[in-house]
Every structure is written in C-alpha cells, then in structure tokens.
Design goal:
The chain is mostly helical and 314 residues long. It contains 13 helices and 2 strands; from the N terminus they run H-E-E-H-H-H-H-H-H-H-H-H-H-H-H. The chain is globular, with a radius of gyration of 26 Å.
Length: 314
Amino acid sequence: MKRKRRSKCVSYAKWGYIFLIPFFLVYFIFQLLPLISTFYNSFFENYRVGLMQIGPKFVGLQNYKEILFNSELPIYLKNTFIIWMMGFIPQMFFSLLLASWFTDLRLRLKCTGFFKTVIYMPNLIMASAFSMLFYTIFSDVGPINNLLNSMGLPTYRFLSEVAGARGLIALMNFLMWFGNTTIVLMAGIMGIDTSILEAARIDGANSIQIFRRITLPIIRPIMAYTLVTSLIGGIQMFDVPQILTNGNGNPDRTSMTVIMYLNKHLYSKNYGMAGALSVILFIITAILSVAVFKYVTKDMVNVGEKKVKKAKGV
C-alpha cells in the first residue's frame, strides 16, 4: 500500500497576532483605560478649592447639565468652528490646486520633489515654536508693524482685534497642514487610471472639465477622509491659540476654543467637569464625523446601488 504523503503546511497566522500584541497593549494602557477613567470621573464632583479637596462625590448627570445649560460651551464651539473654517477652506483650495499641478504630466514641472518638501516642512515644525514665531512677528512692535509704520500706516494690533487673532490662528493652521493635505490628495489623483483622462481629452474635454467631471468624483473618498480628519483636528485645536493668546482667548475670549475651555477645568483640578466636557466633545466629534462622511459619500452609495440593480435586471 502506498502511504499518503501529507503536505506540511506552515501557518503564519499566529505571527500576525503576535506582532499585533504591542499595538493593543499600548492602546489598552494609554487610550482605552484613560477613556474609561474619563467617563467614570464625569459622574463625580471632584475639584480642589485652595488646599481643600472636594469629593469625589457621585452626582450622576449633574456635571453634564451644568456644562450644557449653564456654561459658555456654545460660544467656544462657535469660535472653534469659525477658526477651523477660516483655515480649512483655503487649505482645501490650494491643496487641490497644487495636487492637480504636480500630477499633471503635460506641464512637465521641474524640481517637483523640492517643492513638495518645502510645502511639507511646516508640518514638521512644532506648533509651539510656530506660535512663538508668529507672536513675535505680528506683535505690536514686531517686524510687520514696523513695516507698516515705515510705509506711513498706523500700527495694527493683531492680537487685540477679533479678526486679527482669529486670522493668525487660521493662517498658522493653514500653513502647518496644507502640505500634508496636498500629499494625500496627490496620492488619490495619481491612483486614477490615465487611460480615463486620455479618453476624456480625445473626446474634447478641457482641463477644467476633466478635473470637475472625473478627478473630483474619483478622489471623493480621499476628500472625505481629509475633511473628517481635519474636522477632528479642528475640534481638538489647542496649542496654537493657547500660546498665541496666552491661554486667555483674547480679545474677550473670541479665540478661545473648546479644548482651551477644557484645559481651564483641568488646571483648576475640576476633574468631574473636565470629564463630562471630554465625553460631550467625544459625542459631538463622533456625530459630526459620521454626518460629514455620510453626506460626502452618499452619491457614491447611490451610484453603487443603481449599478447593482441594473446588473440584477431590476
């Protein structure tokens, strides 16, 4: 009788799980446990008055009611949204413009690698250093005002005007992140099949029509990703306005963001209110992210459903 030879198969699946252990371990210790702790502390009254410690005392949803109905959270949410929009709109415009230029083979641009490096470099600079640089340049006795005075123009107090303070914060966020957004959008555009673009040019479509009718619809998932991540980053905006306005959100707290408001509670050792505010921001961020993603990708889902129905003959 011939013995059946059993082929020895080596399973590498276990190694994949082993390599994932460090990630899950770090995530559990530094993210999941703090998240659970924040949610737990949000139900307690726990703060310090001078040298006296109040609590922890279980108060249920009292911290949430205090923040939602008796605080200035809507004002700080409005400030955050305005500053984010002031930086995000030009960021998307210039990023799309640069990405389309760098990926257009007909232009034959030279030194594209150098320019990509230059526009990405501000993303590598620490936000604190960037903020101190802008604080020095746009101060009342800084180089910009000295230039204005030499031209016979009056001194403009950038950090004492609402438009000036918000504009500087938005400008810094734009400069720090438009390079990263450009690289991401370039990756999406470079993934488009060149035969589609060539066929459109043969049919007589110009560059603007190709960009509007072909490029934008195809890279919509990348744009949705960029929009959601930028929205999350905008809600978490802290370091730039904190340093530029010395933590006060001047003038008259018009540039104070929600994370700066959260930091006030943490600084005052009011852990219960800080925990409740963190949970509320987490819920707001999740709702806005899902809503934006659904809105941006709804046309793609509708087109996919129509193709499925057509294939089934419905």
